[in-house]
Specification:
The complex is a heterodimer of chains A (104) and B (674). Chain A is an alpha+beta fold and 104 residues long. In chain A, 23% of the residues lie in helices and 31% in strands. The relative contact order of chain A is 0.24. Chain B is α/β, with parallel strands linked by helices. Chain B has helices at residues 16-24, 68-80, 94-106, 118-123, 130-137, 152-164, 178-194, 202-210, 214-222, 226-244, 248-267, 277-286, 292-332, 337-354, 357-373, 375-389, 397-402, 407-413, 420-429, 439-449, 454-479, 500-534, 549-561, 568-576, 582-594, 602-608, 613-625, 630-640, 644-673, and strands at residues 2-10, 28-32, 39-47, 50-56, 84-90, 111-116, 126-128, 141-143, 268-270, 490-491. In chain B, helix 3 (94-106) packs across helix 11 (248-267) and helix 21 packs across helix 27. The chains are: A alpha+beta (104), B alpha/beta (674).
Chain lengths: 104, 674
């Protein structure tokens, strides 16, 4: 998203289109998706209460998820999953791995 | 006549309250869950010869006990064994809602599903076949539209039939897949040998053990022979990790959603996708990157402007009515102690509060409107970044906003926060949110000393409360323990048109708490306060105020409060405000009207007393920030489970109030003189 997203990207020292895993081109953290983009959840990282809660809310591997919008102050981000809308913060979304769907 | 207990369960935003109200009407009883202060609502519904006692469980997403609400809901079902569970399911958000349904089915009690908001689902192109759903779940499924009252009668009748045993509502067993089922049967036989927890459903216990459910594991740990079962559990979990590289709990969640996916495939027909459109377009505007904040602030400002301006008319009528009552009492009662108690104690006290009821009603109406339309969730969405920087959850914004109504329910509302640290922080700063009880003080002083600028002055006071809360949150956040690992998950339900009935119930619910508080505590406080002003008697007549008990107490405190520009009567009013903030105005009424101001309105009496606008400003600031009322302190005590926190609140708020009021007084002296 705009300026902040580019800044985050530079700080991590990654190049465009390069996700956390070098073997799968489109594997990204959920918070790296832009408004309107869609991905398929691959894995929820972390453990304990955090992971259980996200799984129970429907963040299961193979589930499509779409970025609806960023909040006015960039954080949190509204997603659509399993037909409902839910907001997550960047720090949480960063622990959800997704495979980005190609643009239609 | 026979009775049956019905437990009402469902996700937040599934329309649970609407259905509860539709079923029970006005026959409701509000109390607390034993041991904790989460609100418990009970209602009655008569179907023929059968009386259904409906217990409203807290709104929850799952039965995994991560929040207090979830523990309460689960324990009620397990321990009280309700005759039937009524599960409200939002048809327009079927998959996630059915997750709770599946967990409820596991508890093994008879279940009835109300498929709510089918109109909404159909407008989004989702057609749910309730007959198919009913067949697959093994329980009755009734389509309803809670807001229009559709299907409510059928729900009542079905509940009655199930309760009488005329209708089978035993949920089917869910098949979790071969590996999990094998592990379950191993755990089951281990449990059977030990004969642990005879009253609980066996399969459920085994399932919870496999899920490493915090509560169940700690129960089993404490039982003789529990270690063996837990060791078996560990072995099984290791096996799952080896086979699937996944924990059993995650696999069970997947299996449940797998079952749900099957249900949805069979029972839901999706037609042309016309989903969300209106709600999404509205969100494009209301949560817009640039326009979102101005709109949010405008909404908040409008809320207080309307409360102030529109509320002024009924206030005038009520004031008139009270004058009439006072005249009547004076004319028809013989002069003496009884007349004094009734006119000065009761009418002067409670009456002085009652006239501000319209303002408070308008305030609650506004807050209910935000809640029922779904804007409150958007406000949390917009505000989360700000709240997060204070170490709070965006959801903490909701209890903080509720705090503008009354801090007591607001502190109870912090139960929606799952993180204990964030919750504690939200509780501790909540009294800085200017509750409606402080509002009459502002109305009085702003109306008297800042005529024409009331709205601006009051708005500034509310803003000051928020700013100090932010400051304190940052400060306390550093001191309190580090946070646990619980995610920020905020559901944004589609916008809904609120119904008048719903708004009324919502508003009434909140006003009732205020009224009840007023009826009991405030009446007692007013009479007590009047007693303190009317004793010790001098020749069977009231003493001059300076010699009364309260005058003596006020004089004692005067040197402390003198630097803020307060006289002894104001310090007396502040002492009385400790009982309840509403009492500040009524005691000012008793005190100022007693001396040279007799027979005048309180505004005139205040103006005559030689009070400066700067001192009035300092007084409003002091009332905003100083000690929470007894009710709030009790709520803080109960909610945090420790006396340390209410004490902390008293201390830090007194210090804060004195400092800020001192600054306000001296700034006021300089600025208002210029």
């Amino acid at each position: 998203m705009g300026f902040r997203w580019r800044w985050r990207c530079r700080r991590r020292g990654c190049r465009k289109g390069q996700g956390p895993c070098p073997h799968r081109e489109n594997l990204l953290a959920l918070d790296e998706l832009h408004t309107g983009e869609e991905g398929i959840i691959v894995k929820v990282l972390g453990n304990g209460a955090f992971r259980q809660r996200l799984l129970e809310m429907g963040f299961l591997p193979g589930t499509p998820i779409r970025v609806i919008r960023y909040a006015p102050l960039e954080d949190p981000v509204e997603y659509e999953i399993k037909g409902y809308h839910v907001a997550l913060r960047h720090e949480e979304a960063a622990r959800v791995l997704v495979e980005k769907c190609p643009k239609q | 006549m026979s009775e049956a207990v019905v437990a009402l369960a469902g996700n937040p935003n599934a329309g649970k309250t609407t259905i509860f109200n539709a079923l029970t009407g006005a026959r409701q009883k509000v109390g607390n869950w034993p041991g904790v202060t989460v609100e418990k609502k009970e209602g009655e519904c008569r179907v023929g010869e059968l009386l259904l006692r409906i217990v409203d469980l807290p709104g929850i997403y799952s039965l995994t006990p991560y929040s207090l609400e979830e523990v309460i809901a689960r324990n009620f079902i397990l321990e009280n064994r309700p005759t039937v569970i009524l599960n409200i399911v939002d048809a327009s958000n079927l998959e996630r809602n059915l997750y709770l349904t599946v967990q409820l089915m596991e508890l093994g009690r008879p279940l009835v599903v109300a498929l709510n908001m089918i109109d909404m689902a159909e407008s989004r192109g989702l057609y749910v076949d309730h007959k198919v759903l009913s067949r697959l779940l093994g329980v009755p499924v009734i389509p309803t539209v809670g807001t229009k009252g559709l299907g409510i009668e059928e729900v009542g009748e079905t509940l009655a039939r199930v309760a009488r045993g005329d209708l089978k509502a035993q949920p089917v067993h869910i098949y979790y897949g071969r590996e999990i089922e094998e592990a379950l049967s191993e755990l089951l036989s281990a449990l059977e040998g030990k004969n642990l927890f005879p009253g609980y459903p066996r399969r459920w216990l085994a399932l919870k053990l496999l899920e490493a459910d915090r509560e169940v594991v700690s129960w089993v740990e404490r039982q003789p022979g529990g270690e063996e079962v837990l060791a078996l559990r560990e072995r099984l979990a290791k096996n799952f990790a080896r086979l699937f590289d996944e924990t059993p709990e995650a696999l069970i969640v997947e299996a449940r959603y797998g079952f749900i996916a099957g249900l949805v495939r069979e029972a839901v027909r999706v037609s042309a996708i016309s989903r969300w459109t209106f709600s999404e377009r509205l969100d494009d505007l209301l949560t817009h990157r640039i326009l979102g904040f101005p709109i949010f602030i405008a909404f908040m400002y409008a809320l207080f402007y309307l409360t102030f301006k529109l509320g002024a008319y009924p206030v005038a009528w009520l004031e008139h009515l009270l004058k009439l009552a006072e005249g009547l009492l004076r004319a028809h009662l013989p002069p003496g102690l009884l007349q004094e108690v009734l006119v000065e104690g009761v009418l002067g006290g409670v009456g002085g509060v009652l006239v501000y009821l319209p303002n408070i009603l308008f305030l609650f109406l506004g807050i209910s409107l935000f809640e029922d339309t779904g804007y409150l969730a958007r406000a949390a969405f917009i505000m989360d970044r700000v709240m997060h920087s204070l170490g709070l959850h965006g959801k903490a914004f909701i209890p903080l906003l509720m705090g503008f109504g009354c801090n007591v329910p607001a502190i109870l509302a912090t139960r929606t926060l799952e993180n204990p640290r964030e919750r504690l922080l939200t509780i501790l700063i909540n009294p800085l949110m200017s509750c409606s009880a402080r509002f009459p003080v502002y109305v009085l002083f702003a109306g008297t000393f800042f005529r024409g600028y009331e709205t601006q002055v009051v708005f500034a006071l509310y803003a000051l409360g928020i700013v100090t809360a932010a400051f304190i949150a940052r400060l306390l956040g550093r001191i309190l323990v580090k946070e646990e690992d619980i995610p920020f998950v905020l559901e944004l339900p589609p916008y809904r048109l609120p119904t008048l009935r719903g708004l009324f119930f919502h508003m009434w619910d909140k006003t009732r708490i205020y009224l009840r508080k007023m009826g009991g505590v405030i009446l007692a406080a007013s009479v007590l306060l009047w007693g303190l002003t009317a004793f010790p008697r001098v020749d069977h007549t009231p003493p001059p105020l300076e010699q009364s008990y309260i005058g003596q107490a006020g004089k004692l405190l005067e040197p402390l409060l003198h630097p803020l520009g307060f006289d002894w009567r104001m310090s007396v009013a502040l002492i009385s405000g400790f009982v309840a903030k509403e009492v500040v105005v009524s005691s000012l009424g008793v005190l100022y009207k007693a001396g040279e101001g007799a027979g005048k309105s309180l505004e005139e009496a205040l103006r005559l007393s030689g009070l400066t606008p700067a001192a009035a400003l300092a007084f409003m600031v002091f009332v905003l920030l100083y000690v929470p009322c007894v009710g709030t302190l009790a709520a803080i005590w109960k909610e945090t489970g420790s006396l340390r926190y209410p004490l902390l609140n008293v201390l830090y708020q007194l210090l804060l109030a004195w400092t800020v009021a001192f600054i306000a007084y001296h700034l006021g002296l300089i600025l208002l003189a210029a």
